[in-house]
Amino acid sequence: MNTKFIIFSLLLALAASQTYSISPCTCTQLLSEGDCTKNAGLGCSWDSTKKSCGVSTTPVTPTVTYAAYCDTFAQSDCPKAKPCTDCGNYAACAWVENKCTYFTGCTAFAKTTKEECQAISNRCITDGTHCVEIDACSTYKKQLPCDKNASGSLCYWDTTNNTCVDANTCNKLPTTFVTDKDCRDVISTCTTQTGGGCIDSGNNCSDQTLEIQCVWNKLKTQACYWDGAACKDRICDNAPTTLTTDDTCKAFRTDGTCTTKANGGCVTRTTCAAATIQAACEEIAIGMELLVLIRHVQMLLLQ
Ligand SMILES: *[C@@H]1O[C@H](CO)[C@@H](O)[C@H](O)[C@H]1NC(C)=O
Ligand SMILES: *[C@@H]1O[C@H](CO)[C@@H](O)[C@H](O)[C@H]1NC(C)=O
Ligand SMILES: *[C@@H]1O[C@H](CO)[C@@H](O)[C@H](O)[C@H]1NC(C)=O
Pfam family of this protein, just one (predicted)? Predict the structure, then answer.
């Protein structure tokens, strides 16, 4: 079985070298850790300090066993096909020169667009020159593929160190993010800033200095309200006096807990029981006034 595998790998390597490059692929030509370690047939190992692939000094055992079923897949299914049960998340086949063949890694293919690489395998994107495997952010050596890791989380290109890292802080989120929601959907404690991109949210609503940031407090436990000059907690008492109807007060907070009050603005809606008591109070007050009036009339009539 092992011998068959090696022979098959060699045949593949030979076929690949004849079709796609002048010389056979060597370990040093493999640019990503994924390609390096998964091409067991070449006997390569990844040097994580040098970030390079070299010939392994210790014997490498293949991590992937597979069946050569790839040629049964049509072009549309081939880049996604998983004929093996132990291939992990990855497709085991690749669409190459009009046929579906066993996938040996992305970097063998010189393609300049993401679409071309994806058409070969769902594991591949381009670095501008070659296809590279979609993997951890830290495996991308160029800025172009430094977009998302294999789990779909965003990556960030550090221009100082020329490295690709996880976009795990507010300042590493892309400048195409222009709303509080864009930022919080990825990291919930971030808000937006002028010119795009994200920064750490202020702790309280009152700490948010811009209207575009005045949406939530840092922990997203308190909604905020921009009163035209400052950011405040979105509580009934902070509603503007321009709100004069029950409906506008109700709409001021999504939980509908605000109701109108005299002279505009809102107060927290009291319970039904309290409202009934208040209404009852008013009725009693009216009744008392009537009683007083009747007494006056009676006294007038008696005179
Ligand atoms: C992708 O990034 C996320 C967040 O940084 C991390 O939790 C996850 O393990 C990464 N996945 C891969 C395949 O690198
Ligand atoms: C560059 O890398 C060094 C060492 O890993 C790190 O301490 C530093 O924060 C990085 N620079 C930037 C701008 O992130
Ligand atoms: C702001 O929030 C902190 C806790 O996050 C709290 O201790 C503090 O009292 C708040 N300040 C104001 C002005 O609300």
Answer: Paramecium_SA
